[in-house]
Records
---
Amino acid sequence: MPIQQNLPHAPATVRNRIPIRSVLDPYLKRAQCVLEIASGTGEHIAWLAPQYPNIKWHPSDICPNSLPTINAYNQNNDNVLPALELNTQSSEWPISERFDLITCINMTHISDFKSTLCLFKNSVQYIKPNGVLYFYGPFNKANQFTSPGNEAFHMSLKQQNPQWGLRDVETIIHSAEESGWALIQHIDMPANNMSLFFQLNP
């Protein structure tokens, strides 16, 4: 998928999309419908959708101004539905189906933590049996930054918004467990990121 010069571009999507696809591939191969939380520019789905044409992709974002960009990037992908305005803190999401996979890429550090807590709580009613909830991003371990770059990134986020910043992976896992999710896979990723996979406890 080429970068479209007339649209906003998120450079991180190009840097991390191949590692993300590599860890998601086993789940995508058996998925029929995927919901992406916090799609941003929509470039992740725009790149993945042609590679998995049997999946029905549902992009979404809290910011209504992002929806036209997401739709523009995906205008040639017949298996991508129009982007939805979705706030994870709402108990009623604007969807009426359940998903094999729900992804949340690079959201937890650029939103208040309540958005992540509510994502764990509210997504329960939108996941299929044996469905998977996937988180990707930079996280701390045991209250420690995993690299000087992550520490500098955290400080820059705090300057933009005091409610933003890197979260501890232990806190993420514990918060998931409180909503009934169990960690099934934890993969350290390039550039000091992590992939976390959750399923509902039986």
---
Amino acid sequence: MGRLMEHTVFLVGPHRSGTTWLGAAFSSSPEVAYWEEPRQVWEYGNWFRADDTLDRQDARPSVVRHIRSRFNRYATRRGARIFCEKTPCNCLRIPFIDAVFPESFFVLIVRDGRSVFRSVREELKTGSHWRRIYQRLRETRISEYPAFLNRIQWLAAKISRRPLQFWGPRPPGWRKWLEDDPPYLVLARQWAATAEAAWEGIAQLDSDRRLVLRYEELVAAPREVLGACASQLPFCDLAPVAEYLARTAKPSRRDAWQNELEAESLQSIRPVIEPTLRKLGYDW
């Protein structure tokens, strides 16, 4: 039996904002047990929701016990003193996570919504590979399988690699968007709602429990950015994390949207995403 976990770090950010890349960097550290998107654990006991939002009242004692036990066991089996995970839906659940893990640390990564729009648009054309879904099913306990029941059609589309209508976090109102809005506006609304929820949720935490990273800065200078943040995560050696990021960074992705998004598309989504962009510190 390994050592019990001492710290929990939750990476949050809208899908295609760099959380997978940042999570892989944390997983390169020998003191970190990293779990990629254990949605089925987070949704335990809160099945069949109309969207992915969870709040403090959803953190009932049985739910808290289950989630804490699952993550602690995961870290203990790997002999790691730090547990780390990323699940994009958690942008909509920060108060809930705080109720389950009041001692935890949060890292929010923000990215220009235009970049996210471009990336998600490409992802919807192909879907994800069935191997990742198979791995997630293997990581799931029988008691957690209800988490997949209201996603059967979505899973089938992903396994067969058919184009997806909707992918990623489900903010309140997402079904109505699908009914009323063209696909490009659905993507824009999804990013804006998810990013705003994460931004507001992080702001409610004590300053010594949160860190905000900007994707564009992290891609450009990962060693410098994480070096400046070292004092905010004194319990975690960020050197291997920074080295992984420096080795794998692809700065060309930072501004790809400027060459790949049509002017007409940008003007169509501007009314939806510009207010959120400005709130996050981006200019149009």
---
Amino acid sequence: MNLYELTGDQLRIKNELIAKGMDDDTVQDTMESISGEFEDKVVAYVAFAREELAEAAAINAEAQRMIARAEAIEKSAERKLSTVKNSMISIGRNKVDSVLFKISLDKTPPSLKIDDATLIPADYFKQPETPPPVLDKTLVKKAIKDGFTIPGCHLESGVRLSIK
């Protein structure tokens, strides 16, 4: 039986006990006494989930290693191409033709270099837009905890699974 089915069975039994008018302590004791298979299944699910998380972490670590390797290879290729360019410039060679490649030095469009930005007239600057205000969620949460009512929001607690 899977966890979904076991949960359904446990819930059905709990509801039957409550419907028979049993008190909360009796219901709790009864549920604990019949929960062996359910607990075993929960433990198995958590163990399997942890294995999957470990596998995902290993895959992510390997992916990061491969990304670092790809970046190192790209940098090596860029250094080689830079060496080719610098060599061609230094000897005054603008073209190299081969069966595999046609390599040439081409002029690039002019790019702007700023020598001293303080000397540039104000007309050439653009004013950035003022960013919209950002809600300080920490402040709102503290205010609500301190007893203040803040329209448009409230505090809500959830449940999390803790595995130690």
---
Amino acid sequence: MLRQPTFFPRPEGLHLRPMSSTELETPTASSAWLRFLLPSAFGAGLLLIPFPLGGKISIALGHAVDAAKASLGPTLQISVTVVIVLSAALALLLRLPPLSSWRALDGVLGPILRPGALVTAMRCAGAVIAALVLLQRGPSWLVGPATGGVIFGDLLPLVFLILFAAAFIVPCLTDYGLMEFAGGLLSPIFRPIFGLPGRSAIDALASWLGAASVGVLITANQYEQGAYTRREAMVIAGSFSVVSVPFAYVIVDFVGLGEQFIPYYLTVIVCGLVAALLCPFLPPLRSKADDYLDGRLRELPPRRSGGRGERVASPLAEALAKASKSPSLSSLLRRAGLQVLDIWLGLLPMVALIGTGAIAVAETTPLFRWLGLPFVPILQLLGLPEAGAAAPAMVVGFADQFLPAVLGRSIESEATRFVVACTAVNQLIYLSEVGVILLRSALPFRMLDLVGVFLVRTVITLPIAAAGAHLVF
């Protein structure tokens, strides 16, 4: 299924303790400080800090991608097509003897190189579409500039470049203690504000710094281990499984607003916080039982004591402990390489198939226009131009998070495109990956729950996104 990469590490639950001054002065602690500060600063500098370059304000990753696109030009589409065709060819060949008995397929390479029959068929279909679009052979509704041309000329090259770079940068934020430090600092506010255990801050950070699927998998694992009740787990999965920063940049840059990334992402954060505050008190999450997987009812947690210094020292101790056990450079590069394979061989063919198919349906049938009709008066009430063109983008995100940006890209109004991009990131529930993971996990989600959370989040975040758009434009 179309998804964000899932090879980012899964952080363990926090076991916080204050670090003594003796420990901080040891050579081992000095090494841990360097391991914590240098990679974290490097990753944050590339992914989180904007700066102007060539008349455009963006993060370093955005500037690098712009330069690569300008340098490579049309060869990017050829490269993407070759990778997609190679993905399908490998999936087919590795099912044939004697290659099917290759021992390397028994490890982590197996699901990437030789997926199941359904995914193999989808890769093959994606490869056929990629070849037809590149050669411009086939019906215009499939290979034309408004359908296959958009996916293969604009979207896939962007995904190809950004997620390749992110595979090597994001571990700097997740493997060297920054997540533990930030999660520890955020923990005290999660229970009083969101009514959730402090450890849920880690789930949120795992999504934000890694991928939505990582946060969902951590939440499902914690629920199975008895750390969350049914309602807590569903609220966390349905409120904090945000897309990662690189994915957010993919979407806003694709709709032509990459220079507005900072106000865009600030608006996304506000939308997400308000939705996280309100969704637990609205259907369908409001009615979920507050019991554990084994049937126990939730008990009130004990109050924690400790001054302000301890509340900082404990997360710092955990961050330094994480940094001291950080992976070697060779191990990090190996995992990043596996993720690149997962992105190129697994993700790109799914985007090619699902994205092209969905945009072809949107361009040639009235299905999404019909489904989006209830949003037309809402968008008009919010003062957004081209409400009729934007309404289908409000519902197509349930299929996949990329599709609202694909449909909204042709809208002339920058404010409306801004709202489409914000909503796409904040809807959270999309069937191409997160929805499937939720339905297949131990979390008690049903299809109606997914639809309900998707619609509630859309209605809550739309006015906030519109307010942000009116402030920016």
